[in-house]
Every structure is written in structure tokens, then in C-alpha cells.
Amino acid sequence: MTSTKPVVVYGASGYTGRLVCEYLREYGIPFLAAGRDSGKLKSSMETNVAGIETADYEIAEVGHDVAALTELFRGASVVCNTVGPFSSFGPEVVEACLAAGTHYLDTTGEQDWLITCDEKYGADFAAAGLLLSPGLAHMYTTGEIAAELCLEKPGLDSLDIAVFWGGSPTIASTRTILVNAATSRAHYLQQNGYVEFDPNQGLVPLVVPGQHELAMSLPWGGTSHPVWYSHDPRVANCKAQGGVFNAALMNGVPQIVAQALEATKDMDPEARDEALTATAAQVMNVMPPRENPRLNKSLDSVHASGPLGRAHCVIHGNQNYKQTGLLQAFAASYLLQQPPRRTGFASGCKAFGHRELLGQLRAFGLVAEPVLTYQAN
Hints:
The chain is of the alpha/beta class. The chain is built from 13 helices and 16 strands.
């Protein structure tokens, strides 16, 4: 079928996809809930999307190949893709968007996938006047907002970013973490070039604003920020780390990853992916509960520095998955009304404006007013 709705949510039955649908309903945007299993989609919409009875939507079952996805996307203006790992399943969706003439958004946290989007597909999307914006999600757009607030002060060229959240990873994100660790390297930006993180560094303690106890962090594949800022003339250096506030879970992640890598190091890609999927299911095989703002907190902290100046921005928030759903829905709403600020490969802040994104998160009660301090030069 060809879409009769302006927005397609691909992977709508998943945890994040359902939240995107929920916020599209709040914005009053008709959407197509798409995926590989129509029965699962129907059940998910009816039982897990708040207020779905007032939404203007349809369900579409589609195979995961370029031809089928292209046909489905024709007639739509925006595709919100939540099907990961994106390094494995993203190319077909991006190629279908380009063929169908639709803007592309996704929720990835995979640095290697962002680099692929930038280097392989960015120019083609720009030539077509389309936006290619992977990684529009709390992990790591809220941190990018904090960075952009710091960079409003001229003369700062280095970003030290920390991202923390409270809650459990979803089934899909657990698998993505393992696949990403097994198939790609993590990088930070140093003097405008990518530098690989030491794969053996393990957990790193970070000072977290607002608490006395140190928190444990990981590079999480390098995060999105170094890729987004690799073409920004203001920024020469960018390093980001993050983690969950749950110390026991953080201490267990390196062990789980190391065991999975050791067990699959001699496997061919197909067998390795099957083994990693099975390992991920042992770690997380049930859908996490709906987020609770008292429990599921988020914190994004950015130190920006230059030769003679410094800035620090902290954004306290809650419900990072709901932040993601809102950011996706607002971006879709924006694109249905006007062109993005930048076409081709672009981050959420570059495409829609960091203060505009912050305003939406504030309006829906998902983040507090940023705490921004400057050291005069």
C-alpha cells in the first residue's frame, strides 16, 4: 500500500515507536503505524498508546526491503524510523526514503550509523532537498541542546559532555548495545578528526552535577555528538560519555559485553548476530514499564571551553524515552509546515533549532530550565 498519512512511524509496535505515536496524536498529526506484523501493531496501538482512540491513524504491514518500503513511503512527507540496530536495518529505510522523496528521522544512538548516514547518504539527501536526521532522541539531542546553549558564547571550541538517565534499556536497545560493541569502534573528536577510544578503558568515574557520589560512565559507541560537530567550524574537540544512574547495572555492562565479544569473536556475521540477539534476550527480554517521572530522571551536562573562556550547562529532566517520542513528533510537525533549517545530514538542533527543541521539552514538562553559567574572558 501507499501511505495515505503524512507521517509513517516504522517500528511503531516497539517501546519507542509507541511513544512517537502517542505524541503525534497530541500534535494532531495523522500517521501510519508500520511494521512487519500487523497483529502486533494493532495490539500495541490499542493497549499501549494513551489516547489512541482519538488518533487519526492506520496500520500497515510491510516487508523490510527497499522496494516494499519505498512503495509504503510514497505519499508521506516524513518517516520516523525506530527499527534498530540501525547499522543493520537502517540502510533499507534510508534508501527507501530517498527513493520516495520523504524526510528521514530516527532514534539511533549508534555512532557508526551516524557516520554512514553522513558519508554515504548525506549528499544525496541534500541534492534532493530532503532532511536526513538520525539520532533525534534524548540520547543524545538533549545533550546537544545543552552544548548549543554553551556555544552561544563565542570563542569556545571544546565540548566535554556527560549524559545520564534513570531506567532500564529496552529490548531493542540492549541488542543494539551488544551489536554495536561487536561490530564498530567508538570515537571522539580531537582537533577536527576522529580518534578511537581505548576499547579496554572500562568504566570511567564522572562528576555529576547535583550529587556528591561519582557516577560510572562508558563511551556508548562514542555517542552522536562527535559526528554532529565534526563539520561545525566552532568546535575542534568533542568527547562524550554517559550511563545510567543504576550503579549495579553500569558495573555489569562491561562484563556482559566482554563475555559476548569473546564468545562470538570467531563466528561469521550471521551466526554472531544470532548469538548476540540471544545474549541480549538474556539481559532484557520484556518490555520495560511505562516511565515514572519520579524514578526515570535524566541529566545532561556540558562543559565548553576555549583558550580564554568557559561555559557550563546542565539540563535536568525526566522520562528520557518520552523525551524521544516528543522530539520525533515535534520534528514531524515542523517538517509538515516548513522546510528544515538544513537539508542533507543534520542533527536535530541544526535542522530545527536548539531553543525550539528546548521549548517543546519545557512545554511538555520533560526538562527543567537549563542551568547555564559562564566564566568571563
